[in-house]
Amino acid sequence: LFEAYHKNFGHGVNAAVLKLLRARQRLARKLGFRSWAEYELRPFAAVASDPSSARKLLDRSWEQLQQTTAPLLKQMRQQADAASQGEGLRHVDFAYLQALATRESDGFKLAEYLPAEASLARLMEVLGRASNVHFKPLPAAGWLQTGWHSGVRCFELLDGPPLSSDASRDAKRLGYVYVELFARKMDMRTLAPASMLLAPGHAHVGLHFQAPSMGALKLLTPEDTMTAAHELGHAVHMLCMDGCVQEYLDLPLDVAELPSTFMEVLATQPSIVEEYARHHASGGPPPDNLARIVQMGSLTYAQKLQSCSVSLGLHSENFDPEVATPEELQETAVEAWQRYSFVNAHPVFSPFGDDAGGYIALGSTGIAYLLCYLRADMMLHAQARGATAGSAQEARSRQAARGWLSPDFASRLRSQLLDRSFPGQRLATLLPPLLSSNSELSKSSAGRELPHPLPPLTAEASGGAGFFGRLARQSATR
Fold it and tell me: How far is C-alpha 101 from the chain's CA centre?
């Protein structure tokens, strides 16, 4: 099955990827950059603002991941040896053994606690408390009144915590959020989740979940709740930000994605899961071992490193798509993937059959999401000191949740991130190479290097030690 799947990503796919890489390289060089990776990474934080520093960030993260995943890999190797008569941990078995070791099937058990409509409402309440806003549902209306189909839920986003109905009329309106919870039944396209600032004060959130059958109850997976939290985080940022649409679009990607990634990471904390997950029949919260399932494990982040490595390697100046053949592309992609792999790649394996295919389509920007995960973890655990275990760890987790949902935390999140109007600089940081051919303009821009709008990552955060260490400790308690 493994071989049959990856054989679909052969010469034709590699030729199409080469065509894309050639177009991007030509465009980057016309703009004055040596590679597409250099062009895309330029606006990012200094820790990943060029291909060399981005590679160092991936290497440091891999070093931490190797340490934190050692117990889990030991368990997987033991299972592999028992099942394959000493052949060891093989690539073709890795996903299956990972699912066993991480109890991936528990995600289906947790779905019983995530009925779509009720969970979305409680998730909105949690995210609202974290950002000092609240989602006020608007009465259901038909297409003639709103222009939206029946799968769209409309909300008014109001400033401050929920108030009585009379007081809500006086609350400051930040805008409207249109949540497309279900894909249209007659739409044959599979749409990826996305958020869009339609106009000032109007944000659309497309979740596009598959609608339930007639009379059935829609249950969400843990991945669905992460997606919903991420996209709702975008909507809150879009409506809180003190700036125009163009200023929002001009944010560096590692800034634009931080509020949404923060909400995603917040929603995966076990003590926060207990706030919005309730059994569809009994109404009770999930047990602790299921509440921890929502968090992505260290092996999932290792897969992200592999995909980032492939995209970064193929978009850097070390790989020349103009002269490369499809076979050389395949070899380079596998080599980049292997750099952060716990197993040797199977001979027919193509990274484009995994997440790396999607990362290639997006360019080198996967690094931005890694930066956002590190920043979000730093924001959540800035006050944490040391490691605890057992009931002490659970008590600390619940205490942290009370802090994350407190008015003081929300006020700081709003003032330091969500409400801020950062100067448009993504395009400005790309300007120096474009000016190099014009001596007068080049002189006028000399010494005007724009600093990144966010503070630098701490040494611990940029190395990933705290982040990946917490993932390992939480995985161990599942």
Answer: 23
